[in-house]
Amino acid sequence: MDITQQGSAERDFVELDRVAVHESLRLVDLTRDTDWERDTPCAGWTLRQLVAHMAAQHHGFAAAARGAGHRMAYWREPADMTAPGRTYRGAATTVLAAFAEPGVLGREFALPEIGGEFPGRLAVGFHFIDYVVHSWDVAASLGVALDLPDHVRGAALAVARRVPTDPAGRGPGFAFAPVLDVAAGADPLDEALRLLGRDPDKWPLPS
Question: Which of 115, 141, 151, 186 has the most CB atoms around it within 10 Å of its CB?
Answer without folding.
Answer: 141
